[in-house]
Amino acid sequence: xxxxxxxxxxxxxxxxxxxxxxxxxxxxxxxxxxxxxxxxxxxxxxxxxxxxxxxxxxxxxxxxxxxxxxxxxxxxxxxxxxxxxxxxxxxxxxxxxxxxxxxxxxxxxxxxxxxxxxxxxxxxxxxxxxxxxxxxxxxxxxxxxxxxxxxxxxxxxxx
Length: 159
Hints:
alpha+beta
């Protein structure tokens, strides 16, 4: 079960009061070669920079294989479950997309990443539909420059 459902829910007013504040930082998540290979199989992208450590070491400036950018991005879901609160009366939440997404640094196989979440906006679009905008920075352990930054939009539907 995702950790988000284990936390006590917050009121709608408490959630709105979090706008403009850093909500939290997730735990570290390992992106090892096995995870990269499974992801490559799922999306059918077997470019050598992702799946061939020997060739990537010899032929790239990375010195190792690197994760697909979209793999790193996809981990934002589990990171958000660890950090973002659930609002009382929530029936479900869905991705609505991104206003901005930039991949800033490659994530080398064997690295760990974590997400830093700041709630930027929370506004009702309809009586039972909230649009939230969260700024997310995915950091790479031991590196100054993040893997990615994103302005992530979600829709939260209420019972």
